[in-house]
Amino acid sequence: MNFSNIAQIAKRLxxxxxxxxxxxxxxxxPVYNPATNEYESPEVLYNGFAVIANYQDNLIDxxxxxxxxxxxxxxxxxxxxxxxxxxxxxxxxxxxxxxxQIINVLPVNPNASTVIMYTLQARK
Length: 124
Prior knowledge:
This protein has one helix at residues 3-17, and strands spanning 19-26, 31-33, 38-40, 43-54, 70-76, 86-90, 96-108, 117-123. By secondary structure, the chain is mainly β. The strands form two sheets. The chain has a six-stranded antiparallel barrel.
């Protein structure tokens, strides 16, 4: 089976029907910015698309999955990291509407080398 073709189909379908996201992965220690008088973390940005849903009530246990956590099916140019990566969510007009912390990452890779998409647990 050609999983590269399946990955391309997933990317096309989620791109056409999902919402734009930007994956932010920190790359080092915070750096002081004198213009803003704040410390900023250097990041690498990756574009992607996602379908975002709420978890079913029977899956929310208050510990592993909390109320308000989001289930994200995403196609991304980069690999998200649990605990450090963040997702910026955009509306149809290209305006950022939310930022979510990545809690858990499950790559969907049936042949252990071709990632078709990522299943992510994310929270505010």
